[in-house]
Sequence to fold (516 residues):
Amino acid sequence: MKFLSIILLVLLPAIGSIILFGPWFPHNEVKIRRFAKGWAGLVFLYSLLFVVFFNPAQAGFQFEQVLKSPGGKAWIQPLGINFAFSIDGISLPLIVLTTFLVLLALIASKYNITKRHKLYYALIFVLETAILGVFAAKDLFVFFLFWEIELIPMYFLISIWGSGRKEYSAMKFILYTFIGSIFMLASILAIYFYHYIYTGVLTFDLGVYTSLKSYSYPLMFSILTFWGFFIAFAVKIPVVPFHTWLPDAHVDAPTPISMLLAGILLKMGGYGLIRMNMQILPEAIKVLAPILIIMGVINIIYTACIALVQEDLKKLIAYSSISHMGIVLLGIGALNAAGVSGALFQMIAHGIISAGLFMIVGVIYLRTHTRNISVLGGLGQNSPRFMWFSLTIVLASVGLPLLIGFAAETLAFYGAFTSTVFNSFSLFGWYIPVSIQVLTAIGIFGIILTAAYLLWMFQKVFYGNILNKWKSFHDVTPHEVAVLLSLILVIVVFGFYPQGLAKIFTPTVNNIVNII
Fold:
């Protein structure tokens, strides 16, 4: 396993970005696009090697690697900052999801990106390095560093290649995320300095903090620190009422960027909740878990109701995406193995399904130059392959059994239904008689709403009489088939065999839940 370097995996996309800007690389659209897809494919294949050599029975960090100076010292020795990375059962599936969706987004870019190709593909690679750095970081400072780096390429990808109010949407995304990051930085520094006062050691080592018993922190300190982390991650998930940036960003972003935004970036919030709020602050989350469940149910129902009345295809999918991320919050709040496993499974399932849904919208918009559902109809007559691909992805989002969405949602809702976090729930000393089973049932009603708006959308777009102006609507191209079919294969494989994915993160999840 010496040939496996987690630092190399994180930096490979950035290296590809540098190569693109090298003097040896011509300003040729076709060659740039082919190189970008080939390099992204290399990164994806390299990430799969970590799956092959990963030991699922080991709950802790694996493939740990620290980059040190020539003298053998830490990156910033006086402050205890190490350029350290590692992988465990939580981060590995998200890392592979990232490399997979970046590859598909680059394939999907062929017909969606028509200008400044070298800069576009270079920024995609910088974005990939930033996201991989977040999922693989074993140092809190490095985690925060990559979390912030991600903002830069995403801002330009929306503001340059987007449409409509693209500059407004890009800036709104930056402001929301940056303000949330301030709270996260405050929480990181609070833990850092408290640990120094308590032990006399300066360190940002995530392994140290996740192995400590939370009773070393006063409860009020833990709760305040918890909320600092939560605000940052709630913006990213996003959680109502921090969600308003996402529909704007999706509507104005190009299709490949919407795929990455929904498929990967939102998962950074869920990952942060598990890694920071659960592992570092288990005593605080035991107190606040009921609030997470209530917020998760609100997320599911409120945004699903908004999706019901949307006429814009992209806005409908954007609100659907927020609704389904509410299931992640619900599963995490359950604080049991089934719930947290369901939350992780839902992050992977949602990443695949949402990328597929935005690809469907992109294919339609590319041919019709409209996202208005009311002026579409009968498209399935001229594009049967596209219609059946779309139906499979829609049914996966609805939660049809034997597709990946069903496995994820069932696990998360079962975990919530059997949770005991409300047994002693009180607010300011007053006991609150809330039934977790009733809340879960309300959350499950969101699946019915999902079926209502997605199947209505599918019927309006693909069935009925086709308008004369859409007579030239043609079926999917080979590039589009490659993207949609790849996503459907994952949807079907892990729908039939969810254990193939669950066995990677189950030991790590069990270890986290046992600490709580």
